[in-house]
Amino acid sequence: MCLDLVKTYRTATGEVRALRGLTAAFPAEALSVVAGPSGSGKSSLLRILAGIDRPTSGTVSVGGIRLDTAGAGRLRRVRQRVVGTVLQRPSDNFFPQLTVADHLRLAIRSGRGRGSAVAASELVDLLGLSDRLGHRPDELSGGEQQRAAFAQILLSGVGIVVADEPTAELDRDSATHMLDAIDALVSRGVTFIVSSHDADVVDRSSSVLRLDHGLAEGSPSSHGTRGTGGTAATPWKGPGSVGRTRATAPVGRDARISDEHRRPAIEVRDVTKTFHRGGEAVHAVRDATVVVGEGELVGLVGRSGSGKTTLLNLMSGWERADVGDVVLADGRAVDRSAPWAEVAVLPQRLGLIEEFTVRENVEYPARLAGVLGSTEELADELIHDLGLSALQHRYPRETSVGEQQRAALARALILTPVLLLADEPTGHQDGAHARDMLEAIRRAVARGTACVAATHSDELIRYLDRVVTMVDGRLVADADTMRA
Amino acid sequence: MGRERTHPHRGIGSGGANPLWARAPGALLRYPGLFVALAGGALLLAAAAAAFPLFLSASQSVLLHAGIDDRIVTPFGAGISFSRTNVRLDARGPGGDLLTEEMQDAFDRLAAGGVALAPTVPYVFGSEASVTLPSGAEPESGPITGRLVFAGDALDHVEPLAGEDGDGVWIPDLIADAVGAGPGDLIRLEHAGRTILAPVDGVYASLYPLPHVGYWQRWLRYVYLDPGCLDCSPPPQPILADRDQVLAWTSTLGPRRADLGWIAPLRDPAGLTLDVAREQARSAARALERASDRGDPVGAVLACCGRELFAPCCGDVTEALFVSSLEQVIGQVDRRTSSLETAGRLLQGAGVLVALIVIAAAGAFAHAARRTEAGLLFVRGARWPSVAARSSVESAIPCAVGGAAGLGLAVVLVRLLGPGGSASASAVSTAVRGAVVAVIGALAFLGVVSAVAFLRRSEHHQGRVRMLARIPWELGLAALAIYLYLRIRETGVFGGDRLSADDAEPSLLLLIFPIMFLAGFGALAGRLFVAAVAWWRGRAAQRSEARYLAIRRLAGAAGPSRILIAASALCLGIFVQSQVMVASLRTTVEAKAKVYVGSDVQGRINLSTPLPPAMPLPFTAVTRMIDAGDLPGGAGFDLLVIDPRTFAGAAFWRDGFSDRSLPSLVDAVSGAEPEPIRAIVVRGPRVRDGAVVELQEHALTLRVVGRADAFPGMTSRRPMLVVDGDALAAAFVDATNPLNNTNASHEIWVRGDPARATAALASVEYPPYLILTADEVEAIPAIATAIETFLVLNALGLAAALLVIAGMVMYLQARQRSQVVSYGLSLRMGMADATYRRALTLEFGTMLTVAFVVGAALALVAGILVVPLIDPLPTIPPGPLVVAPVAALAVVVAALACVTWAGARLTSARARRTDLGEVMRLAD
Questions:
Q1: Helix or strand or coil: residue A214?
Q2: pLDDT per residue over B65-97, tens digit each?
Q3: Which listed site, A440, B311, B504, B792, has its alpha carbon 20 to 30 Å from B919?
Q4: Please, which residues have CB within 8 angstroms of residue B849's CB and are 6 or more apart in sequence?
Q5: Shortest Cα distance, chain A CAs vs residue B12, angstroms
Q6: Which letter, b or e, does each residue of B458-487 get, where b requires 16 or more Cβ atoms within 10 Å of its Cβ?
Q7: H-type helices in A187-262, by residue range?
Q8: Is-contact A31 A204, C-beta < 8 A?
Q9: Quick check: B40 and B396 in contact, CB under 8 A?
Q10: pTM for this one?
Q11: For the segment B735-755, what is each residue's pLDDT rounded down to a tens digit?
Q12: Could you tell me which residues come within 8 angstroms of residue B412 by beta carbon, excluding any fewer than 6 positions away?
């Protein structure tokens, strides 16, 4: 339970007020969701609940323990015995030298004496990890890593699990699998508090706390302009009430270029790519053929590990196909030297330059292309449209992951590229900001940019011209969503 | 994606060892960079810990060998020796055998107790006898005597002139020439009317005029001329024969008594260490105890020591003596090395400190590189002691490897660059212990660093750290440096007036001050630099992409940039400051020595000694007169009378001595006019033209043609007048030659290689009675110690600088690793690889340049402050000279340029090699 919680960070460019007097309560033995736009304070709240950070002021108690006044040792014991944390990036939950089994063994050791809500073998089966126990973390897909991370926490015997966007980097099936497991665990008395933009997660939750600018949405002092959801006292529930009043039809849909007039921007012909990971051969892409035309927004969907990122890498020229060709409109094989104005990329690891401010990052392609002056207006527009105006002079480390993701999109679009390759472009966004991003992409598509986006997001799928599905490295479906 | 599963299913359970601990020892094998960084830190620490005992021991060995090699010691004197005079050859010992035999056995038993003794050398000095040819005719030169002597392997210690070994005797050429005998001849030996004939096997060079050699050292008065009586006749020279013959002939000739001696010299003195020497000294003391104990069988035979009446009748006085000089040699070594120890310990401390900083940096680097794991441990509620302990276990292998390498490095460095002596077993053991302790210490320290870094993850501790970081702690160091400087000024550099003493040692403050000065002001400069870069970031022109990127990289990593610049400035500064000190001390001492000597070598002659007409090296003749007269105002002055034709070519000169060149001054003073006499005034008060000085009660009117602050030939800080010899002679043409005075020293100065110059002087027809070289004057132990200390500090600074620079390269590489995605994207955006490389070069080069400029400037300032306080020979001008090590600075600049270029290329090459596809795929 939090009362009048304030959290302020001091950064090189000034103070950042992440929480501004938040009051909220989370039910025990239930799944609670903390929702809200990027930068609204979700991660800060979770870190305080997990005993990682202390509030600047206000009170917070978890499991009857006051965390705001607890000493460092008490907080450590809370982290060890009371609240388990699943970190946002799945790979961050592992020691690289240990196998999954080692991690689980470690968790059982640390939880010895407290007992776990579920037996180890049962949990391993429940989370679909039984054949991955001997693998090291870098041999697992993102979804497998996320599930193994949950398994560790649960075996350590903690009663409360805090997770920051646990399904952000999972495909739909993996996410569903994960949520089923959470449901099962909740029924056994485990409390989950997760931040998420995922409607499915919200659907299954018992309570939702929507944050905006560090306050529960709807509070008198909230600066939020978008939300109409419930407050902490009256938790908002259910996806139907997602508080967006803006963004109706996707931009550019009407200006869509008809298929017969669309010139191909990139062609992937019978491409196969195999690589080796640990002791196994991974057939990442098999006999893939796909053509993406100018002004077309194509979605690439599939489970984690199905080969989406590899296919994007092949299209970007970062990987070379073992078999087959990837060629641009003029017939040239794509390679890593393709300029940004031709092939722009929004990778999952965003790759913002740490030493540049958000604006400098956005403008950097234009600077390098020598067109900084002529793109200034577009930079302003993108920064504004993507909700980055107030953050443009901050360093990336002073912004949330979602904000960084939006900055990376602005950077990708600054030269209005021929082809935009985006890997989970809205993975860290709430609904409103996701729509901002999609509209920005749609506007670029309207200007002729071809876009391929690997995604799990239903929201994004609504904006797509076409969906290409990947299963075990193969393209198994190619559907035009608009036609559908 | 389709996977071909190859791993078997493995079960889980809580049994067995904790996986994190079980895999901890090999954890860093996954991180070669970290492994190398930690091993490097441990290497430096172990080397710092191990090098000093090895260096000290090697120095002790060198001093020990020098002491043993001294001509009044030698391995024969440093071993054990026993001698007894006037022993009756037919006397029986306590065992009933002949006393001579029992004494031999007893000494052998004593020598057997030694730990470093060679086989015993027996000596028998038998009868003295007059030597003639068999005819008995006295030599024309008068009667000549010799002494029957047996000495083990004596022929190895004389210079054979003719003959070969046989059953006869070897006679000295003094006897051979006198009697006209040679190999194959017979000689007649006569004593008290009894005679024997002895065949001559050979002739050797008489010993008495030769330099003393160790073998005969024990028998100086038996063999060599008495140095106190140069007019005395040489002692009877040894007639060498084998032992039985000497004993038999001595019995025949009488008085049937002999002086007996045994020496067990030191075995392998060149390989002797102080440890072994001490043990040998202890065994010698035990041997003396036994020899002196009449209750001991050995003592009963040797009847050591002193003078006693061996028999109740006259002439039976016997003297027993047991000698070993090793204890005195060891005492000298201890006294000499005590002056090395303090400075050495400080340097060791400084080395350990630098190594700990490197280890801390490596530890912090390791923690940063594995921050994800640290973050995971933090959120899992790990305790800091556990993190610290595991970090130590993880670091064990690299630290052990580094420690072993550091020990090896210390051995190699001491062997290659050290004084050349061998290290004792105890020093080796201390060094090994030191390396082991260093490794354990490094592990503990790494644990502490990890714990601190881990605790910094907590906001609570982060706040404290931020607060600490805001404190300008470098001001404290700077203030401490200023305080230390004031202390040095107050207390002096060499602890008062002990400079000339053998055990004078430089003050510790002399070493601590520059380190504090460089650390404090270097860190301050680092802080100012990052502030300047932050300002520059917002204002710099943005035309060059490389500059744009470099400035932002520098500004974006302000903390690491500040630390790296401060650390590099410190290390480079220590290097430069040591160079300044060494160069200044050497130059000062050299200048003083050459001013004192006048040139490289000086030969002193008499006023009447004819000068050599020519020599292979430039030379000049001068006369200097101490306290020759009084200047107006009453100040005394010295006089230097020169030959202007040759003076400038042979005398020592430095431009700083005067604002005019030496040839110009000499030209000006040249001229035979006696009135007024032309003179150069050195260090004097403002003497005007026309001033009259008094010399030997003779008034001289001066024409001052030049001035100088120092001048060759000065032996004190008294003013000196330099005049042309011809002019002075003209001035005194009607008076007594003022140079014919006991205060006057007539000298030939030779310029050139000292050995050649000395040889040249020695070979002239009328050689000087004394030859003095500038090198001899320079050999001041305290200054040599100070120079050695700074040389070690110099090496330490250089090693630390290399490590810091290597750390910088690793830091760049680590940053590159963490920025691989942004780098790949930047290339995509149009950044040329060359631009990136230029940016790296600019970034790295700026840090190194700033560090070097700051370090070098501070080092020069520190040198300027300290050098004037160190006046090795305060009575001799010039004063201390501050010398900027221009060549070393140029080398450093060139090296830094190369390092910058290589570091940037290495980093950009690493960036190019990165498989971006894999990076992106693994992020999935």
A1: coil
A2: 888 887 778 899 999 999 988 888 888 888 888
A3: A440
A4: B896
A5: 6
A6: bbebeeeeeeeeeeeebeebbebbeebbee
A7: 199-204
A8: yes
A9: no
A10: 0.68
A11: 777 777 777 889 999 999 998
A12: none
Q: Can you tell me which residue has the tokens 């000034």?
A: A14
Other residues' Cβ atoms within 10 Å of the Cβ of residue B271: 12
- In the sheet that A343-346 helps form, which strands lie side by side, from edge to edge? A343-346, A419-423, A450-454, A297-302, A466-471, A474-479
**Which tokens go with B131?**
């030597």
CA B510 and chain centroid, separation: 18
What is the H or E stretch that residue B908 is in? helix B886-913
* Cβ-defined contact of A133 to B11 (cutoff 8 Å): yes
Query: Measured between alpha carbons, how far is B649 from B604 in angstroms, rounded to an integer?
Result: 19
* CB-based contact A379:A416 (threshold 8 Å): no
- Partner residue opposite A106 with nearest CB, options B18, B460, B922: B18
Dump the DSSP string for B76-133: HHHSEEEEEEEEETT-B-TTSSBHHHHHHHHHHHHHHT-SSBPPPEEEEEEEEEEEE-
Give the SS3 label for residue B895: helix
Residue B167 class from Cβ within 10 Å (0-12 exposed, 13-18 middle, 19+ buried)?
exposed
pLDDT number for residue B587:
87
Contacts B20 to A, Cβ<8 Å? 95, 98, 102, 106
pLDDT along chain B (924 residues), means of 10: 40 69 85 83 87 86 86 87 89 87 92 91 93 85 91 91 91 92 92 91 88 82 70 84 92 88 90 89 92 88 70 64 90 78 73 78 77 84 88 92 92 80 86 90 89 75 68 87 90 59 65 88 91 82 79 84 85 86 85 90 85 91 89 86 94 91 93 86 82 82 91 89 91 78 86 90 80 77 66 71 74 75 83 87 90 93 88 80 88 89 85 72 54
Tallying the residues shown for chain B, one arrives at: 924
User: How far, in Å, CA of A360 to CA of A358, rounded?
Assistant: 6
8 Å CB contact of A286 and B2: yes
**Pairwise CB contact (< 8 Å): A120 & B458:** no
B315: left (phi over 0), alpha (psi -120 to 50) or beta: left
Bridge-based pairing of strands B744-750 and A31-35 is unpaired
Question: Following CA atoms B646, B652, B656, B661 in sequence, which dihedral angle do they give, to the nearest 10 degrees?
Answer: 10
For A97, nearest residue in chain B (alpha carbons): B27
For residues B229 and A25, give the distance between their C-alpha atoms in angstroms, rounded to a whole number: 112
Q: What is the dihedral of CA A40, A44, A50, A53, to 10 degrees?
A: -170
Cis previous bond, B676, omega within 30: yes
Cβ-proximal residues to A447 (8 Å cutoff; 6+ apart), any chain: A295, A416
- What single letter denotes the amino acid at residue B837? R
d(CA B434, CA B450): 23
Set of chain A residues whose Cβ sits within 8 Å of the Cβ of B14: 105, 108-109, 112
Query: Could you tell me how far CA A362 lies from the centroid of its own chain?
Result: 20
User: For chain A, how far is it from start to end, CA to CA, in angstroms?
Assistant: 46
Residue numbers in A near B827 (CB within 8 A): 336-337
Give the model's pLDDT for residue A482.
42
Is A39 touching B (CB cutoff 8 A)? no
Q: Note whether A207 and A33 are within 8 A (CB).
A: yes
To which residue do tokens 């105002």 refer?
Answer: B633
Q: What φ, ψ does residue B915 adopt, rounded to 5°?
A: -85, 95
Residue with tokens 């290659």: B416
Query: Which residue type occupies B81?
Result: S
Number of other residues whose CB lies within 10 A of the CB of residue B515: 23
* DSSP label of B120: P
Helices (H), A248-356: 308-316
Q: Please say whether the beta carbons of A9 and A394 come within 8 A.
A: no
Beta strands in A196-263 (DSSP E): 207-212, 215-216
